[in-house]
């Protein structure tokens, strides 16, 4: 029997729900960083977007409506308070590009430093309200964490890192990622912080309490089995949603 691929977590350094979900996941399932493949996601600038489209892929993330944005602000505040997290809202610039921190994370992973960088950037963004995509702030944050901030900042211009960025964006397209956090385990796809319980349960079922991914057996049940064909083949056959991503 061939082994299926490892569980995946799609995260975004821009998203407060992603920040809280990753922290809760790693607290509740300490083997997460060993057993799960982490994939960064951001809205790519035009050159990366074109490279992605040249491969027949696209970005599924949708612009957020004002109503959803205002709801999200209150919901994030409530949720952070429930978890006991300090929260300092960053005020982002409109149209801001997010290549710098996410491509730097890819470069840090090659050095085995991605966990250190991730935690430093999360603390800067959500506990101090800093714009981690700003070059000076990024370098200062990475340096303070004991990393080479200038080298990691340069990753945005590295052809190999940019090629890897297109690959991870294509993976998101193939996994139908449209919001964050987004989990995949076997054929099961789970979206949002409120699906964390199901993801943790699935991880514990598959891996138990031991770090032995080679012992995991595939569970290949299609989550859409049993549904009327029209629901999966005709978008909107069940319900129409309003435009808006999950930030």
Structure characterization notes:
The chain has about 250 residues and is α+β, with helices and mostly antiparallel strands. The chain has a single domain, classed as Glutaredoxin (3-Layer(aba) Sandwich). It is about 45% helix and about 5% strand. It is built from eleven helices and four strands; from the N terminus they run βααβαααααααββαα. The chain has a four-stranded mixed β-sheet with strand order 2-1-3-4, sandwiched between helices. A hairpin with a 2-residue loop joins strand 3 and strand 4. Helix 3 crosses helix 9, helix 5 runs antiparallel to helix 6 and helix 6 crosses helix 7. The longest helix has 18 residues. The chain is globular and about 40 Å long. The C terminus is likely disordered.
Determine the mean pLDDT: 87
Largest sheet: 4 strands, mixed
Strand order across the largest sheet: 2-1-3-4
- Based on CA atoms alone, the radius of gyration comes out at 18 Å
Uncertain residue segments: 210-220, 230-245
Secondary structure layout plus pairing:
Blueprint lengths: L7 E4 L4 H13 L3 H4 L1 E4 L5 H8 L12 H18 L15 H12 L3 H14 L7 H10 L4 H5 L5 H16 L7 E4 L2 E4 L4 H12 L21 H5 L14
Parallel strand pairs: 1-2
Antiparallel strand pairs: 1-3, 3-4
Helix pairs in contact: 3-9, 5-6, 6-7
In short:
It contains eleven helices and four strands, in the order βααβαααααααββαα. By secondary structure, the protein is α+β, with helices and mostly antiparallel strands.
